[in-house]
């Protein structure tokens, strides 16, 4: 059992900032020997430590915040679709529904609450962590996520640029899923901390809720005036807008699919968010269509 799995499933407030180490038992010793397979987060799930002077570990620090799912790996892995199948099965077997009823209720809860899980917890007293173990943790990620050397090199390139003090992950998944993804991709040694969506909390607070971002900034000890120096990349239009509206200075929307980009450009507020010029100090959300171009974007801005 890893140090993470053996720790109790506490709520957000009880995170300690202690380092988190995770060795994926699904990987063979040979696979685990490659750089980045072992996950090590020096500040764990936060908060970042406070120095004796009462300030955070670095004054005027700059953090690069990274989303994980469909951002650090390609949508073509179809992990989202795999997850939909697991959720369907969960509805069907745990609530004893037909396929048709399961589909209907799943969609109903998704539309009503934004997360199917929220509907299950509210209306069926489902244990959110049991759901997580049967849905996210049950995904066969080993079959679809490969060791990603080019991704590793992109992240290392940015890390070695000296432009950033810390790399921090922000995910809507629960922490187990995040740690597994990092180990499969081979990037577990490149981040300082992780903020996850705590399914054990009710109501569930996730991106793009303001409360989620506020929690992230609290855990990384950033004040409102620090936000303009921070960087954030995510594949969700809602999430990047939320971060932008909160004042994060460098927000990057990763749009992998040209069809999604075409749709985005049709939105009535596209100019407002992505056009620049009219915004405060010409701020705008940057669009990234190929993750390999991230170092270039970082250098250009
Ligand atoms: Mg994502």
TrEMBL record:
Top-rank lineage group of the source organism: Eukaryota
Name under which the protein is recorded: Pyrimidine 5'-nucleotidase
Alphabetized InterPro entries for the sequence: HAD-like_sf (IPR036412), HAD_sf (IPR023214), Pyr-5-nucltdase (IPR010237), SSM1_domain (IPR052791)
Gene3D superfamilies xref list: 1.10.150.450, HAD superfamily/HAD-like
NCBIfam families, alphabetized: Pyr-5-nucltdase
Database matches in Pfam families: Hydrolase
Region span, Disordered: 1-23
Organism, as annotated: Lodderomyces beijingensis
